[in-house]
Every structure is written in C-alpha cells, then in structure tokens.
Amino acid sequence: MCPPTILLLPERPVPISLLPLILPLAGDRVQAGFPSPAEDFNCKRIDLTEQLVQHPQATFLLRVRGDSMKEAAIFDGDVLVVDRAIRPAHKHIVVAVLDGGDFTVKYLHKRAGQIRLVAANPTYPDIVPREGQVLEIWGVVTASITQFKT
Description:
The chain is mostly beta strands. 3% of the residues lie in helices and 35% in strands.
C-alpha cells in the first residue's frame, strides 16, 4: 500500500493568509559553539507573518523547482515569499514570466535600458528578452524558506 501524496503548494502562486502565524521564540540567538549554562531559557513569541510579509494583500508563496538559484541559497523545493507590491530594482531576486510561459526566479539586471534575468548557477544562461517578447516581472522575492530533511 502506497502512502498518500501530499502536495503542499500548487504550481501556481498561493496568497498569504492574513492570519498571524505565531510561534515560540526560544531566545534571540543560538550558540554555534558551546552553549552557556548560565543563560536561562527565555521563551517569547514571534509572528512569522509579521517577520516575512510587508504587504499581505500582495504577497504570495511559490515552490521552487530546479537549481538555477542555488548560489543565492535558493534550492529545489524551497518556498519563496514573493511580494508584488515592491517595485523591482537592479539586483533584486524576482519571479518573472516570459511570453506568458512558466514562472522563473532569477536576479534582475537592469543596465543602460537593457533588462536580463541572471541565474545564480553558472550552468544556466542569462535570459535576455528579444524584440517582440513580453517579460513580466511578477514580483520580488523577499524570503526563501528551506525545510531540512528529518
């Protein structure tokens, strides 16, 4: 008997919930060396929506497929927080659509009136729209959520 398949996010954007997501915060930092036994365990709460979302009505989640942004620490399976209210600027990581095709996530390069999308993986070529092609910068990536295997 096969276990059920669970799809967390569809291939299209999912709007962010307006409800807060509040989780316990165990201190404001974590030691990467030897822990201090003198520090007491302090537990307050942090709202992940408040931390990750500036414009709730314009923020969506997208799941990453592929490794074209691995050198920007965006990996296959990550969940991107994408804000459509932020004006895209040079060197922003953006979600774009070329000629109404699939979403792609790349660095936006804007220089001397030229626009190109640049991967964070040298095995992928730049995407340079040709005359007559339509490039839509769909939104700006504000966070990437990586889930570790357990």
